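Workshop exercise sheet. Pairs work together: one partner reads the sequence aloud, the other fills in the structure field after running the prediction. Swap roles for the next sheet.
Pair: D.N. / O.F.
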Amino acid sequence: MSTRLQSSFAVALMLAALVGSPRAQTAATPLELAVEAYESGDLKTAARSFTALSAKRDPLGDYNLAMMHLRAELPKPNPREAKRLLERAAAKGLVRAELALGQLYEQGVLGKPELAASTVWYARAAEHGSVDGQVALATAYYLGRGAPLDMKQAARWFREAAIGGDVGAQYLLASMYETGLGLPADLRLARYWYDIAARNGDEAAPSKLIDIDRRLALEPTT
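Structure field:
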């Protein structure tokens, strides 16, 4: 399975940090114990625990069991069962499940890629605040891939992702302000976002800042 789908399991791994932490003296929850088993490499216990949680329709149980299907970590991995579990988790409002469904359709896990279907799920994740979903939706509009070519919508969602801290979105939004692609050209806003991207580690942004500063210095003063 691709690294993109593998990264979807990060939610569960983040929950594992809660297990045994000094935050409280209470017993670990079934979900925390399941994640702890997964992290320790005990996939049988993890699968049994996530299955029990899923039987109770726990969204994170559904999600994590689906990820084990997709990562072929079960004796009989089944992508279609993963899809069913993810849809059930998404229906309960689990944004990470919406994102994972978008990835599942984009990558053709069930057969051939279904880009229009992937965009539907990315849009749901984006609307619910997923930065990764916002980047994926913006990219779909930017490339006209799985969605109509629409630079205004691309700029809208790159802006949301940029505000959310995605460095690539920050750079692309700056570029769109610089060129007037999808929104009014504005060198000062371009500089603002190039500067943020540079501060966040984008390697190309510092040279763009130099160029933008040069161009701004040549603008007539009023």
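Discussion prompt: The mean pLDDT is 90. What would you look at next?
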